[in-house]
Amino acid sequence: xxxHKFFRQVNRNFDRAAKFVKFTPGLLRLIKMCNSxxxxxxxxxxxxxxxxxxxAWRAEHSHHKLPTKxxxxxxxxxxxxxxxxxAALMTYKCAVVDVPFGGAKGGIQxxxxxxxxxxxxxxxxxxxxxxxxxxxxxxxxxxxxxDYGTGEQEMAWIVxxxxxxxxxxxxEGCVTGKPLELGGIRGRREATGRGxxxxxxxxxxxxxxxxxLGLDMGIDGKTVIIQGFGNVGFYAAKFLMEAGALITGIAExxxxxxxxxxxxxxxxxxxxxxxxxxxxxxxxxNITDTSKALELDCDILVPAALENQITADNAHRIRARIIxxxxxxPTTQEAHDIIKERGALIIPDNYLNAGGVTVSYFExxxxxxxxxxxxxxxxxxxxxxxxxxxAIGEISDRKFSxxxxxxxxxxxxxxxxxxxxxxxxxxxxxxxxxEIRKKHDIDLRTAAFVSAINKVGIIYERMGIFP
Length: 467
Ligand code: NAD
Known about the structure:
By secondary structure, the protein is an alpha/beta fold. Helix content is 46%, strand content 15%.
């Protein structure tokens, strides 16, 4: 029997929020439960000919909307509890940002470092085969995406396997986070980190909230520490730096680097790639106990690695005024209460890291419509703008230079539209949950749950399910 600690933690957060909604206990139970979980075990033939057994899961938490959606994680920490909890978080996250999917999550219990590329390919393709066999994948059923330990390569193997076994007009929509050439979308790779940046920026734009925290309005000059320098952490750090924040610390598995004057994110990334370690980055202080980086002085702490990083053990020592949860479940409930007591703001995972699934939604729409966003109207927009500028020129006797014309008459391409849709989503959702927070005098996490429960609950009510 799995020890469902993480799932219980998600449900405790749900229960806190349930006090502020008007559904029956039966309907609340219906929303909370996980609809289906598939635990598979399959053999892997290693490169040396030996056979190993692989454990993997896919959980579909809620079928109130289809398809279900959620990433696939490769890590030794993967278990049924984790996958179920993360699937539930996906249901709530999609509802918070109005992405019309149910929540799901998958995971394979492996340490990727122990496998060759060919072995990882065999594992991923077999996992996909198992999902197909049990009807746990498909553009209208369940659509995986990258998560911890996976990326475009794994998604490419999944879509290829799926297309071979279930060929159809829409088969490319069976998975998101794919390489562009296989039906991916511009901006997906960096979407979660970009969304994290948009979310933090929106929080910092609120004068009243910043005043309560004793911080100035705006992101400019705010000091930031990032834990986890993978897909989400790297892009969150990069975009925050570009927005004017000072990235003073970056923590990875092997240690952390700190420079109160700020680190150049891309250069730190290149240094790690070249030397194999984040440590010894020129001009920065090394911190060999990486967990200590969380406790350094900063305005914003961005945990972007894994769950349970901020616990009752270290929460008292965390000094950041804003904890921006880029990872899923980085703060335990005890730690959340300690931090809240101290008056810091937690921007919760079930809102903040929704950028990935938002752009995945755009990718899925692109796959079903078979046309790139902007393809039909980019030139039309450009030409209309040029005509308008020419007319203004004639009336006002003011001639625009070629450069001005080029700069002012840009039609929106796929990346522009994706980023605009993402920014709008993150801003709208933040203001929705912040309003709920203020109305009930609760924290943002509970407010995000209230928002999600209301949006999911109303669907069951409209379907006539009143348990
Ligand atoms: P990733 O595998 O690309 O990167 C994670 C990084 O964290 C790795 O570099 C790893 O070495 C590092 N790390 C692990 N434990 C650490 C520790 N104790 N201290 C410091 N660094 C540590 O994974 P990712 O896709 O960036 O996902 C990170 C988190 O974001 C996960 O919780 C994931 O569920 C969540 N998330 C990811 C996406 C996405 O689009 N990839 C979307 C939503 C949420």
